[in-house]
Design brief:
By secondary structure, the chain is of the alpha/beta class. It has three domains: 96 residues, 3-Layer(aba) Sandwich (Udp-n-acetylmuramoylalanyl-d-glutamate--2,6- Diaminopimelate Ligase, Chain: A, domain 1), CATH 3.40.1390; 212 residues, Mur-like, catalytic domain (UDP-N-acetylmuramoyl-L-alanine:D-glutamate ligase); 143 residues, Protein-Tyrosine Phosphatase, Chain A. β5, α3 and β6 form a beta-alpha-beta unit. The relative contact order is 0.08.
């Protein structure tokens, strides 16, 4: 069915609008992307050292574990790996060509392409492909927190009118984003791309590759401070997205975030304002927390308005909904489809997902954490727990640099102020979290520094056995990605 729809869409386009490559191979005519060697050389500026000049490649691969016969293997290198070590494996699995930055001591029966920087070459290949998809609209999303949820919401809305390519999972860096974009073909009307970063220049490069038509900075908060030094540094790095846009691109601006507002003032491009204030073109009013059922609000887009309820807990998801609605509106989606897309949306993996284990309600928000997202999660639990008990099981917030001690101490204070019954803190900064909680009136029985995840599971089991926790009580599990706090939930499932 999808192939038939794609064919009908292609036939309906005027001949002048059909996309042909520089070498006579039409990307638009292919269901599976096909690259010629000439296209690869033109896109990357690479130099061929061996192999035939008529070679073609099924797709671009950077991982021999998923490489398929006919792929072009691009050997990336980093601090902990050297892709050249996997060239032999790539050839054994049927790679039709190899891109490297230095010669390798391997007999090359296929084209061997030399480039200055494989990571740069990966981005250049994605940029080349995007440039040859003239009918494609690209939406780019960045922000300190919530960007994956916003991306998923936006894609859910757009899917009601368009064929959408979206960033899969956490493929939002200088490797993942180009790999996502390389999957685009003529069937796609819109690409929704998430852009993450932890140092200056990364967003600028991704904007250069993706060439967005619509862009949104969801928020600017204290995150990745170890690489960006200050929240002002975060703002400058996020602002690279707006700076890298075409003159006719549209900006979706969160007017509730003063730093995003400040960034947007520097640009004369068309701006769609979203937020809770009356000046917002896309705004929310009459917000009502419905507990575990989500949040209800009235969505306004210009003079249109509609009451709806999203099935995501926490009022911060209202702002996420507005960001997604603003981008969909910028893309020309009708109000009715925006509303239905938001209603149909379900929380993404490890992002405020509620599951029940033997009567305990586990809130899995383990994907990542920074001070703002921690506060949002704690507020969300406060809004749904009613008269039930609550436990905050928190791992470290990573990459905060010199602000780490202060941020973790404040986190403990916040847990106590939000009236959680227990705090179980794990990680390098867990002592600071507990100190903050104790200073804010929690007792030593309530706030505990946990040496291991296994100890956390044992503690929860003891709470249940002693009747301290029971049916309907809430456990919030959250921490930065590197803490892998979801393993606690997995162990609880096995033990209970």
């Amino acid at each position: 069915m999808e192939l038939m729809q794609c064919a009908r869409r292609e036939q309906s386009r005027p001949a002048a609008g059909r996309i042909m490559s520089d070498f006579g191979y039409g990307f638009a005519a292919m269901q599976n992307p096909v690259w010629t060697l000439s296209q690869v050389l033109l896109a990357t500026g690479g130099r061929i050292l061996s192999g035939g000049t008529e070679a073609k490649f099924r797709s671009i691969s950077t991982d021999t574990r998923t490489l398929e016969p006919g792929d072009l293997f691009l050997a990336l290198s980093g601090d902990r790996f050297d892709g050249r070590q996997f060239v032999r494996d790539a050839l054994k699995k049927g790679a039709a060509g190899v891109i490297v930055s230095e010669p390798v001591d391997v007999n090359m029966p296929v084209p061997f392409i030399l480039v200055a920087d494989p990571l740069r070459a990966l981005g250049d290949l994605a940029a080349y492909r995007r440039a040859h998809m003239h009918d494609l609209r690209v939406i780019a999303i960045t922000g300190s927190s919530g960007k994956t949820t916003v991306k998923e919401m936006c894609a859910a809305i757009l899917n009601r009118e368009y064929n959408v390519l979206k960033t899969e999972g956490n493929f939002n860096n200088l490797i993942g984003m180009p790999l996502s974009l390389l999957k685009v073909d003529s069937c796609h009307d819109v690409a929704v791309l998430e852009m993450g970063m932890n140092r200056p220049g990364e967003i600028a490069r991704m904007a250069e590759i993706a060439d967005p038509d619509i862009a949104c900075i969801v928020n600017v908060q204290s995150a990745h401070l170890s690489g960006l030094e200050s929240i002002e540094g975060v703002a400058r790095a996020k602002g690279e997205l707006f700076a890298g846009l075409k003159s006719w691109s549209r900006l979706c601006v969160n007017i509730d975030d003063k730093r995003v507002r400040t960034l947007a003032r520097n640009y004369s491009r068309e701006q769609i304002l979203f937020g809770r204030g009356k000046k917002a073109h896309v705004r929310a009013t009459h917000i009502r927390n419905q507990g575990e059922e989500g949040v209800a609000f009235t969505l306004h887009i210009g003079r249109e308005k509609k009451r709806l309820q999203i099935h995501s807990i926490g009022e911060h998801n209202v702002t996420n909904s507005l960001a997604a609605a603003a981008m969909a509106h910028a893309a020309g989606v009708k109000m009715e489809h925006i509303v239905q897309g938001l209603i149909d949306f379900t929380p993404y993996d490890k992002r405020m997902q509620i599951e029940e284990i033997k009567g305990l309600k586990i809130i899995n928000d383990c994907y990542n954490a920074n001070p703002a997202s921690m506060l949002a999660a704690l507020d969300a639990v406060l809004g749904i727990k009613k008269n039930k008990k609550s436990v905050a099981i928190l791992g470290d917030m990573l990459e905060l640099g010199e602000a780490s001690f202060k941020a973790h101490r404040h986190l403990g204070e916040t847990v106590a102020c939000k009236h959680f019954d227990y705090l179980l803190a794990h990680g390098e900064f867990s002592r600071k979290v507990v100190e903050g909680a104790l200073d804010a009136s929690m007792t030593m029985k309530q706030a505990r520094q946990m040496e291991s995840k296994e100890a956390i599971v044992e503690t929860i089991m003891n709470f249940v056995h002693l009747g301290e926790l029971g049916k309907g009580d809430f456990l919030l599990v959250k921490g930065s990605r590197g803490m892998r706090m979801e393993t606690i939930i997995e162990d609880l499932k096995k033990r209970m």
